UniProtKB/TrEMBL annotation:
A flexible structure which links the flagellar filament to the drive apparatus in the basal body. It is found in: Bacterial flagellum basal body. This is Flagellar hook protein FlgE. Residues 84-141 form the Flagellar hook protein FlgE/F/G-like D1 domain. The lineage of its organism: Bacteria, Pseudomonadati, Pseudomonadota, Alphaproteobacteria, Hyphomicrobiales.
Length: 592
């Protein structure tokens, strides 16, 4: 090859360094371009075929090498629609090819970019600074799940968000084992309970009755018209016996042993009944703490245990004369109590109900037309294991705050919550349904009260109040479109004036096996090639960062260093050309 070969190699070197200079200049020019990937220059030597002893270095070929796999710095931004990728991959975009009847027209092809400076245009589309439109998959607003599998241009709507009727209330809470209601007194037996007999007809407690009608106004009669000196009676409550001994202090001494009841004139029948009631409460044990001894509506002798619903009770040891006077049988055992369910509480009884229950929280729900309704909840303990029953609760809601008289004000949801000694529900209640929920005349419809598996418990609480851990619902009123943002999971979320944030689309990203073999196009986008392979779409939103942009991966100082090296290499190449020229001149001068 000789001098001409050296000259040719020098020219390829100059051409290669020129190519390197072109890449360097492009990198420096795009050092501030969002998502730009710098181009490196690779040099490849071209060796001519020659015997082993005659081989020469040969020429050089410059090739561009992409750096798509090298990430630029992530910079935060106040724009909520800007996004960056903190992973290998690309956003899927598409250019607009025209307009038809006022609508944007797209070709349906996929391009790929790391440029994430997307903003909403006049048509509600997300377009970046290079004019490419972001693609993703729509989200079903009813289920929140992605629908479809083929990426499409994300289109946002600024229309009003229609109201969504409440169908589910998520409610989890802990009920105190001992509710400290307004009427609770530690010294009063069962005062923590609702007292169903005060709110529902048919509720009765353990009772015994005489059969003799003592006549109207019998309570005002002298005591001796019913009771006689020397009469006896024993009342036994849960095994605790109270022996009553009646005497006339005007003619007889005070009897010993038991409880003495004086009949001396002018004491009345009512005085004697009051004394018996007081003494029974004092000496009959906790189960008799609210016992009553009185005349019933038929003017018959009557004994009940008040708010105790489970204790055994009997009367025995009745003297013959007293047994006849009252129409008692000896012995007489109380009938089994019946604790009725309180379905509704009237307005007349509302204050008493509130005083015998504890607040369970309040929540706003929505009717089908978006009308907001405030639902106030109250828990009432209706039975207790401490009194021989089971720890049972009912949940009520304020159905009519303007109710008067006998009209219902509070309504039972219709579900019993019974707890074991460990504080967990005896029978799991993962959910309860409030049928035809109506508050202050506004119909909501059937609403599921979702508790989850162990969402309602009864553990000891020193405050005696309900601790609500979860209280939310799935309804909302109509709302006006305010703004849109892209989250770190790649969800495009619209915000409305009613406070709702609705996920509208999922940003799709694409990865390539041959990431550096993509074809570069204008605007920082790439096109798949046979060397890059087909895109692998990712719907998880992995690596997406909202409110951020990826800067160019160009390093100015590094580019300037390469610029100096390239300049010196080019200068060295020109020296080869000059030297080869001088040698050719010498060869030509030999024939002169």
């Amino acid at each position: 090859m000789g001098i001409y070969g050296a000259l040719s190699s020098a020219v390829t070197g100059l051409r290669a360094q020129s190519h390197a200079l072109e890449n360097i200049s492009g990198n420096i020019a795009n050092s501030q371009t969002t998502g730009y990937k710098r181009m490196e220059t690779s040099f490849m030597d071209l060796i001519p075929d020659a015997p082993l002893k005659s081989q020469v270095p040969g020429a050089v070929l410059a090739q561009s090498r992409a750096t798509n796999n090298i990430q630029g710095d992530i910079q935060t931004s106040s724009n909520e629609t800007y996004i960056a990728l903190n992973a290998n991959g690309f956003f899927v975009v598409e250019p607009k090819v025209g307009q038809s009847d006022g609508n944007s027209v797209f070709a349906g092809s996929n391009y790929f970019t790391r440029r994430g400076d997307f903003e909403i245009d006049k048509d509600g589309l997300l377009v970046n600074g290079a004019g490419y439109y972001l693609k993703g998959l729509p989200i079903d607003p009813a289920t929140g799940n992605i629908s479809g599998s083929v990426p499409e241009v994300i289109e946002l709507s600024n229309a009003f968000l229609p109201a969504n009727q409440t169908t589910t209330i998520n409610y989890q809470s802990n009920l105190p084992q001992l509710p400290k209601t307004a009427n609770y007194k530690s010294t009063v037996y069962n005062s923590e309970l609702l007292g169903s007999e005060n709110f529902a007809a048919g509720s009765t407690t353990a009772a015994t009755n005489g059969t003799v009608n003592l006549g109207a106004g019998a309570g005002a009669n002298l005591a001796t018209t019913v009771f006689a000196d020397g009469d006896t009676m024993t009342m036994t409550v849960n095994g605790v016996a109270v022996d009553f001994k009646f005497y006339d202090s005007g003619s007889s001494p005070v009897p010993t042993g038991g409880v003495a009841i004086d009949l001396v004139a002018p004491r009345t029948v009512q005085n004697v009944l009051d004394d018996m009631q007081s003494e029974l409460r004092d000496f009959g044990g906790g189960a008799a703490a609210s016992a009553t001894v009185s005349l019933n509506g038929s003017n018959q002798f009557n004994v009940t245990l008040g708010t105790d619903y489970h204790s055994s009770f009997s009367i025995s040891g009745v003297s013959a004369a007293l047994e006849t006077a009252l129409g008692l049988t000896d012995p007489q055992t109380s009938s089994d109590p019946t604790l009725a369910t309180v379905n509704t509480v009237s307005a007349d009884d509302a204050d008493d109900f509130v005083a015998n229950s504890i607040s369970g929280g309040a929540i706003t729900v929505y009717a089908s037309n978006g009308a907001p309704v405030n639902v106030q909840l109250r828990w009432a303990k209706v039975d207790s294991a401490a009194s021989g029953g089971t720890d049972r609760w009912n949940l009520f809601y304020l159905s009519d705050s303007a109710a008067v008289g006998g009209s219902p004000a509070w309504t039972n949801i219709g579900q019993d919550y019974e707890f074991g000694s460990n504080g967990s529900l005896s029978t799991s209640v993962p959910q309860a349904t409030i049928d035809d929920l109506r508050v202050n005349g506004v119909l909501i419809g059937d609403v599921v009260l979702a508790h989850d598996t162990n969402g309602v418990s009864q553990f000891a609480d020193v405050n005696g109040t309900v601790t609500v851990s979860t209280l939310n619902q799935n309804g909302y009123g109509a709302g006006e479109f305010l703004s849109v943002a892209i989250t770190d999971s790649g969800r495009v979320v619209a915000t409305y004036s009613n406070g709702e944030r609705i996920e509208m689309a999922q940003v799709v990203t694409a990865q390539f096996n041959g990431i550096n073999s993509l074809k570069r196009l204008d605007g920082g986008v790439y096109e798949a090639t046979s060397e890059s392979g087909e895109p692998i779409f990712d719907l998880s939103g992995s690596g997406i960062i909202g409110g951020a942009l990826e800067a160019s991966n160009t390093d100015i100082s590094d580019e300037f260093t390469k610029l100096i090296i390239t300049q010196q290499a080019y200068s060295a190449g020109t020296r080869i050309v000059s030297t080869a020229d001088e040698m050719l001149q010498e060869a030509l001068n030999m024939i002169r």
